Amino acid sequence: MAPIQRVFPGFALILCAALWTAALAAPPAAAQGDRLGTSGLSLPRFVSLKSGEVNLRTGPGKRYPIDWIYRRRGLPVEVIDEFEDWRRVRDHDGTVGWVHRFMLVSRRTVLVMGATRTLRRKPEPDATGLAYLEAGVIADLTDCRQAWCRIEAQGFDGWLHRSEIFGTNADD
Length: 172
Hints:
By secondary structure, the protein is mostly beta strands. The protein has helices at residues 4-7, 11-25, and strands spanning 35-36, 42-43, 45-49, 54-57, 66-70, 76-83, 86-90, 96-100, 104-105, 109-112, 117-120, 129-133, 138-145, 148-153, 156-161, 165-166. Helix content is 11%, strand content 42%.
């Protein structure tokens, strides 16, 4: 059997040219295995709810039924997919649905999870406590260093272990 290039002499050259052109036109890859959404931003990524009332729909459009209504402004959600002006999000309970992009802001927040947590002065398990934060508190995320994240909550600025909050990933 003859090799493909002999049967289709120009095919290999055309294929190489097409692949080269596609590689040059492709946007740079997102960090650490993430993919880019249609917006050009990396997926997955965390954002916050813009309003105190946000509809979560079963599909990407107003014609799809509302599955859930969020009533917590600033609640962190993870954008896992995009379709035109719609963002598929996942919340802290694992609920997934579609939200219009105008109902999301890039401001990073976190949600305190589990039990009451101690906000620490330094990113160390034995550091002095600054405040106790109950589960469900929403705080602004300012920085993460390895297993610890610095947050601002109700006038307090300190550190929580990453395992105690929802709204971060290993790349933060």
